[in-house]
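Recap from last week: sequence in, structure out.
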Amino acid sequence: MTKIITKNNKKIIMIIGSGHVGSTLLDKTLGSHSKCFSLGEIVNFSNELKREKTLCGCGAWLKDCLFWNNIINKIESSKKISFRNKPDNFQTKFHLSYRDVISHKFFLFLSMLLFGKKYKVNNISEIISNTNELYQTVFQESKADVLIDSSKNLLRALILESNIKKFDFFLCILLEMAGEFYILI
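Predicted C-alpha cells:
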C-alpha cells in the first residue's frame, strides 16, 4: 500500500468533473470510509439552505439535521453573522459570468492563481474565508481526517488550494471521452 506523505494531517479531496461522470458515486464511496466525510457539492450550501425540502445525507431534512445545525451555529458565532434565515450572507460559490471571463477580471483571477497576487475580484476573499471556516468547522465536528468536496469546479478548486494553506488539497479529475471514463489524481 502506498502512503502519501503530506505536510498537514487534514486533507481535502476536490472532485472535479462535468455532470454524469460518476462524481457523486466517487464522493459517496470515499465518504463512506471511517476517516472521511462527504460534503457533497458544498459549493451549493447557501442555495440548499434556502430550499425547504433539501435532504441531508443522514436522511433528515437539512433544516432539521443536528450535525448541520451545529455547524451553522458555530460558524454564525465565530463570524458574527446570521445566515440560517439569510443564506446569502454566507457565500461559498464564485460567480464568474461570461462577461467576467472575457473581461480583465479573468486575468486578475489567473494572476492570483499563478503568481499569488491578492486582488479584490467581487467577493473572492470573503468566499475563500467562508469556505475555509466551513472546512475547519466540519473537520472539528466530524472528527474526520479527510473531507470530500465534489463541487466539480476546477477554477474554484485551484483558487481554494492556492489560498487555504492549513490543509492539503488533492484534485481528483473525472473525464469521459468517447464513452470511456478516466480518473486523474
